[in-house]
Amino acid sequence: MSKNLLILSEITKKELATDYYKLTTKTMSLTEQINADIKAAMLAREKEKLEALRAVKAALLLEGTKDGSGEVSDATGLEIIAKLVKQRRDASAIFKEQGREDLAKDEDFQIEILNVYLPAQMSEDEVRAIVKATIAQSGASGPQDMGKVMGPVMGKLKGKADGAIISKLVKEELAG
Question: What is the per-residue DSSP string for 40-57?
Answer without folding.
Answer: HHHHHT-HHHHHHHHHHH
